[in-house]
């Protein structure tokens, strides 16, 4: 038998199995199953009458203090979890913040590719879905988390960007005192302006941010399509964020030069600092 034939007999069976291997990986990705597990993290699937949720948890590296860990409950796990986890860990390594209480991240996503499901996101984070999801968090998610580690209610944050930001503000309005800290990045106040702007004096320390480019003028300068400019003008993200911040008596942090999407990354990092310092 020639060496070439021997090589083919060894390699061809491997190649035959390759499509099945790739298909298996693709199926995992479609179901939102991570192929890489980060140290100190866990993934849960929890049912609800709104459909299943996928929860990603990043556990603190330090032992729990007497009062328990701080906890960040974050919306949009597919976008928020990695940034928040890294921000928490990097700040824990800062000698200037060595006394800061350790913080866990609990991020809420959907059983879809990258944990992002745009239809469910709209359904769950706006309108009537807000009260249903908030009720599920109180009845199911938060008790489940509190069986896993000790939590400090004085260091409990709700955190979200865009639709997640408006959800965080609604949680502050609908469940006074449930969250000690509320972080809302570029919140979609336009989804319910009367309720959100009318409840600016709600309970919970408030951190609110906006991208400096989230104006109709910036969209026009960037030669955005006319319909997009009109939509940005109607939603008035900047104006409503200013109005909310003024009504709540807190500063509005503006990320100069950043668009709506680009402002999410610095927002999540600053939200961690807000929890640990406020």
TrEMBL record:
Keyword Phosphoprotein: no
Record-linked InterPro entries: AB_hydrolase_fold (IPR029058), Esterase-like (IPR000801), Siderophore_Hydrolase_D (IPR052558)
Keyword Nucleotide-binding: no
Gene3D superfamilies in UniProt: alpha/beta hydrolase (3.40.50.1820)
Keywords for the protein's UniProt record, in alphabetical order: Hydrolase
MF terms (GO), sorted A to Z: hydrolase activity
Superkingdom of the source species: Bacteria
Family recorded in the similarity comment: Belongs to the esterase D family.
Protein name: Alpha/beta hydrolase-fold protein
Species whose genome carries this gene: Thioclava kandeliae
Lineage: Bacteria, Pseudomonadati, Pseudomonadota, Alphaproteobacteria, Rhodobacterales
């Amino acid at each position: 038998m020639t060496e070439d034939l021997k090589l083919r007999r060894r390699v061809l069976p491997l190649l035959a199995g390759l499509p099945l291997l790739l298909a298996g990986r693709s199926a995992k990705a479609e179901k939102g199953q991570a192929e890489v597990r980060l140290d100190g993290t866990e993934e849960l699937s929890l049912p609800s009458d709104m459909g299943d949720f996928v929860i990603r948890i990043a556990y603190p590296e330090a032992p729990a203090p007497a009062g328990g860990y701080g906890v960040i409950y974050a919306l949009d796990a597919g976008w928020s979890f990695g940034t928040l986890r890294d921000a928490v860990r990097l700040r824990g390594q800062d000698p200037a913040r060595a006394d800061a209480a350790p913080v866990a991240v609990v991020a809420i996503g959907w059983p879809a590719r990258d944990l992002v499901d745009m239809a469910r996101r709209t359904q769950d984070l706006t309108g009537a879905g807000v009260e249903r999801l908030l009720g599920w968090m109180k009845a199911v998610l938060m008790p489940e988390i509190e069986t896993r580690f000790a939590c400090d209610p004085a260091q409990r944050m709700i955190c979200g960007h865009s639709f997640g930001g408006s959800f965080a503000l609604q949680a502050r309005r609908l469940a006074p005192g449930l969250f000690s800290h509320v972080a809302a990045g570029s919140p979609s106040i336009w989804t319910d302006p009367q309720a959100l702007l009318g409840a600016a004096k709600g309970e919970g320390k408030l951190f609110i941010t906006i991208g400096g480019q989230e104006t109709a003028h910036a969209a026009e300068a960037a030669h955005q399509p006319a319909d997009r400019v009109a939509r940005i003008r109607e939603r008035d993200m900047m104006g409503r964020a200013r109005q909310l911040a003024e009504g709540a008596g807190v500063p509005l942090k503006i990320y100069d030069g950043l668009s709506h999407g680009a402002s999410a990354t610095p927002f999540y990092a600053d939200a961690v600092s807000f929890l640990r310092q406020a």
